[in-house]
Amino acid sequence: MSVARRVPDLGALELLLAVVRLGSVGRAAAELGVTQPAASARIRAMERQVGVALLERSPRGSRPTEAGALVAGWAQQVVDAAHALDAGIGALRGRRDGRLRVVASLTVAEYLIPGWLVALREAHPEVTVTLRPANSAAVADAVRGGEADLGFVEGVRTPSGLGGTVVGSDRLVVVVAPRHRWARRRGGVAAAELAATPLILREEGSGTREVLDRALAAHGGAAPPRLQLGSTTALKAAAVSGAGPVVVSELAVADEVAGGRLVVVPVPDLDLSRPLRAVWPRGGRPAGPARDLLALVRSGERAL
């Protein structure tokens, strides 16, 4: 019989060690991020595989049987060896892990990532980062295609085929030049009027456009745009020139609004908030520098 058929896998051994250390299947399951029924089923499967009872269960918790204590001792050696193997593989992978490819939607790339990358550089000066801005649809395609280790998008949901987590939030605003008629409306404009007005917008496939289209769907949908522009800088220039109302991230126009070059027009009956997400290929988790950057981004969000 093959040894592999008699020896539990590494995950099962780690679970057994956690139960022995914590005295509870439930606490071990929580630590390892699995449900208690799944952990209990895995322990039972391991007991069938090795042919002996490994745990004594009681209302007060679980403790190893005599055989379970022996197996746990041997399991610890296996897990330690696996960690040593992982460290060795990590060393071999070091050169590859010294680079990080990031692709991000334009708002994130222009207004948030520079600060994040400064923090990453301070914590991990050995990492070389390449950053490519793109709209949210192109970000998703790049991550799916293996062209980037980590992506950042602004859409209302995680793109299909990807894993993801919310790392922040943003809000779209309607801005106009000070001489535009909407700039003098103290109460702003209604969502229905906004929907009926040809606006200057980002292209389809951008997170900005997706959020706006979804928000206006209940008000008859957005009118055909007056202009479609492919960058935030172009949108702002169009708004400042008086070409018409623009919908853009409030992060992007903070300086122009503070300087009086643009005016924010309230839309009281419309929610234009949107999550910012980090995305990666489904089925795994970010590793190496991608994991480090994600940790920095999430810790910074919690500190706000």
Automatic annotation (TrEMBL):
Keyword Transcription: yes
Keyword annotations of the record: DNA-binding, Transcription, Transcription regulation
Domain HTH lysR-type: 8-65
Domain of life: Bacteria
UniProt GO MF annotations: DNA-binding transcription factor activity; transcription cis-regulatory region binding
Regions that span the bilayer: none
SUPFAM superfamilies: Periplasmic binding protein-like II, Winged helix' DNA-binding domain
Pfam families associated with the record: HTH_1 (PF00126), LysR_substrate (PF03466)
Keyword Transcription: yes
Family: Belongs to the LysR transcriptional regulatory family.
Protein name: DNA-binding transcriptional LysR family regulator
Organism: Actinomadura namibiensis
